[in-house]
From TrEMBL, chain A:
Pfam families: Prenyltrans (PF00432). It comes from Oikopleura dioica. Its cofactor is Zn(2+). The keyword Zinc applies. This is Geranylgeranyl transferase type II subunit beta. Gene3D superfamilies: 1.50.10.20.
TrEMBL record, chain B:
The keyword Repeat applies. Its cofactor is Mg(2+). PROSITE patterns: PFTA. Belongs to the protein prenyltransferase subunit alpha family. This is Protein farnesyltransferase/geranylgeranyltransferase type-1 subunit alpha.
């Protein structure tokens, strides 16, 4: 589908809007400092939805900047201010890490500088016994289904499950199910109110964990039907996230993506009044600065979050965007290729271990030696 | 990006830390900017840079003091989402053995300004854990509800407190009172379900009283999705189908002569009930009636979802051909 067919006015003004965000934000946006990677994801993602990301110069430098925010111990920091703290305070964040990987994919990077083993053990360390995920280590951030489970599920899906056992996966899935609300949508934590965005997070995570529409599917046909009903009821003109809340452009993505995931075989336009959704989003275009507003009101201006999610939502409605990845369909091929490469490289390393089986005797004696060495090292430490 | 952080800009008398007498012993740490092409660069104001340069210095020194506490407050003013600053603030509070009274006041003040900020709500939760006390939280969330009845964070916090400290007393009445004031408050409906689920459970008696409560509320507003969802949720707690209630709604719909948009949820409930009946008892007549109602939904009652109702009706027709 060509972007012009979305009918959101002057595409160039939207491109300018996202490029301005990438460039420099005025000081009143300082409060976004710890989430700069997320804002970058919104701007780059917006350009990608508009088909304009290849106009960007300096892609290589952007990639360098993103990698500069990687922790050697796995994960990414949202900004330099968050990173350059003493080690006991500097904590990478799962949402920043998700955003970093998204940005790198959008910029055409192959993700070959991600510290994968460290990343995976860091994610594992964020997992709570009940199967939920913390946003950052040591409970410095709250725990909830928000994006945290979704971000973790996405990263595990791409980078592999080597230290994430089947039991861990089942616990994560169990937690997601425990967040199901009485109206069969999903809430932030067990018992919380059903919500379009969290329903998306739940379904997309279940899909990444292989538990949606599969042999291991954990939602019954009746439950999926109820979820579809919850989502279609979220249209009044545009789309909202909870019963009797006003329409809001960002739910064009959250609720429509949840709807698509709940019933992938049926087109969104077969369930919603597509024209009305489109005219709502169109009425929220910011004619002055480009971008898309939360809702159509005089005192509203476009912001990065709503501009990004409105476009992503239109992408889902026009079937240009793969909902669980939040990426245009033509990019998901590359994601799958990267995923296969990561898998193969893991196989390679385990193969090379096997080929060393000839030297088993040597390995065993080395292992005994290293255990002994560890013991020797630890002894004085523990007694000290 | 919808809220702004300029709530400190009117402080004319504000003195930068670099100009403060009692901070002369500290050398600010300003991480060198190596990237010409940073993404989403922010034009930090002088006071922002000043605060965070001193924050970095204090962290490097591992200083836990009154002035460090004050510094974290200035940093939080400028970026309340910086979870590392909050974390450091908590360490200072612990190390100095501060009384939590002032901190409760501080978070309350902050929450009323930034009701959707995750870090402040989290901080508040930690305070309750430290004090092992959730007694003031109900009143605090009610202040927030005055600003925004459906504030997701406030509801989540209230439910956490109620569950964590076993404060179920009066909660069911609280939810019901909110529903009497506004029957469309879905958060209150959800809270009612939450309280019953975690306190009395869905006993026969409770189910009956809740069904009569929701029927009363349907009398007030027949087309309220929340009430219908709540009714379905109660029915999900019963294993056997409640045909009496289903039949009652079938007759109720039957006698409405001029059906319109305000009967869509009733019609949807009846269509669901009949479709289920058709499936369970291979009742062709029920199926035909359900198809008729679904068609009516798509044409007259709820045309915005016409494609959806048509889809359901064609599935059902195909099944009973």
């Amino acid at each position: 589908m060509k972007i012009e067919e979305y009918g959101i006015g002057n595409v160039r003004s939207h491109v300018r809007y996202f490029r301005n965000i990438l460039n420099v934000l005025p000081s009143r946006y300082s409060y976004l400092d710890s989430q700069r990677l997320v804002i970058a994801q919104f701007a780059l993602g917006g350009l990608s939805f508009l088909g304009a990301i290849d106009q960007l110069q300096n892609k290589e430098e952007f990639i360098e900047w993103i990698y500069s925010l990687q922790s050697p111990h796995g994960g990414f920091f949202g900004s330099k201010i968050m990173k350059e703290l003493p080690s006991h305070l500097a904590k990478p964040h799962i949402a920043s890490t998700f955003a970093a990987v998204q940005c790198l994919i959008l910029l055409g990077d192959e993700l070959d500088r991600i510290h994968i083993p460290e990343l995976l053990s860091w994610i594992k360390s964020l997992m709570n016994p009940d199967g939920s995920f913390q946003g950052a280590a040591d409970a410095s951030e709250p725990t909830d289904l928000r994006e945290f489970t979704y971000c973790a599920a996405f990263l595990i899906h791409i980078f592999g499950t080597s230290n994430f056992s089947d039991e861990d996966r089942k616990r994560a899935v169990q937690y997601i199910i425990s967040c199901q609300s009485p109206d069969t949508a999903f809430g932030q934590v067990p018992g919380a109110e059903g919500h379009g965005a969290l329903t998306f997070c739940a379904l997309a995570s279940l899909k990444f964990f292989g538990c949606l529409h599969s042999d291991e599917g954990v939602l019954s046909a009746a439950e999926l039907k109820r979820i579809v009903r919850f989502c279609v009821n979220r249209q009044s003109e545009g789309i909202h996230g909870r019963p009797h809340k006003p329409d809001d452009t960002c739910y064009t993505f959250w609720t429509c993506a949840a709807l698509k995931l709940a019933q992938p075989s049926i087109d969104i336009s077969e369930k919603l009044d597509k024209e009305r959704v489109l005219s709502f989003v169109r009425s929220c275009v910011d004619e002055n600065i480009g971008g898309i507003k939360k809702l159509n009101a005089k005192n509203q201006y476009a912001d990065a979050t709503h501009s990004y999610f409105a476009l992503a939502g239109l992408g889902v409605i026009f079937d240009d965007v793969m909902p669980e990845y939040m990426l245009k369909k033509d990019l998901t091929k590359r994601v799958l290729r990267i995923r296969n490469r990561v898998k193969e490289s893991k196989l390679d390393s385990s193969n090379s271990l096997l080929s060393r089986a000839g030297n088993l005797a040597l390995s065993v004696s080395f292992a005994i030696l290293s255990v002994y060495a560890t013991y020797l090292l630890r002894e004085p430490l523990t007694s000290a | 990006m919808s809220s702004s952080s300029d709530d400190y800009s009117d402080e004319d008398s504000y003195i930068l830390f670099k100009d403060r007498e009692d901070w002369r012993d500290v050398i600010p740490v300003n991480p060198e900017d190596n990237f010409e092409h940073e993404v989403v660069r922010i034009a930090y104001s002088e006071d922002f840079k000043d605060c965070f340069d001193y924050f970095r210095a204090i962290c490097d020194k591992d200083e836990y003091s009154e002035r460090a506490l004050e510094l974290t407050e200035e940093c939080i003013k400028r970026n309340h989402a910086n979870y590392s600053v909050w974390e450091y603030r908590r360490r200072i509070l612990k190390k100095l053995g501060k009384k939590l009274e002032a901190e409760y006041d501080y978070t309350q003040k902050m929450l009323r300004r930034h009701i959707k900020n995750f870090q402040i709500w989290h901080h508040r939760q930690v305070l309750c854990e430290w004090a092992n006390d959730g007694s003031r939280e109900k009143a605090m969330t009610e202040l927030i509800f005055k600003q925004d009845q459906k504030n997701y964070h406030a509801w989540q916090h209230r439910q956490w407190v109620v569950k964590r400290f076993g404060l179920y007393d009066g909660e069911i009445d609280f939810a019901r009172e909110l529903l009497i004031k506004d029957v469309y408050n879905n958060s209150a409906w959800n809270h009612l379900h939450f309280c019953i689920q975690n306190s009395t459970g869905w006993t026969e008696e409770i189910r009956k009283s809740e069904i009569s409560f929701v029927l009363e509320k349907l009398e007030v507003a027949i087309d309220n999705e929340c009430s219908w969802n709540y009714l379905r949720a109660i029915q999900n707690h019963i294993l056997t189908a409640n045909t009496e209630l289903g039949d009652k709604f079938v007759s109720k719909l039957d006698v409405i002569e001029e059906r319109g948009n305000s009967h869509k949820h009733l019609a949807a409930y009846v269509a669901d009930y009949l479709a289920e009946k058709a499936e369970n008892d291979s009742d062709k007549e029920a199926a035909e009636k359900a198809v008729k109602i679904l068609t009516e939904l798509s044409t007259d009652l709820d045309p915005i979802r016409r494609n959806y109702w048509n889809y359901l009706s064609s599935c059902l027709s195909a099944q009973f051909q």
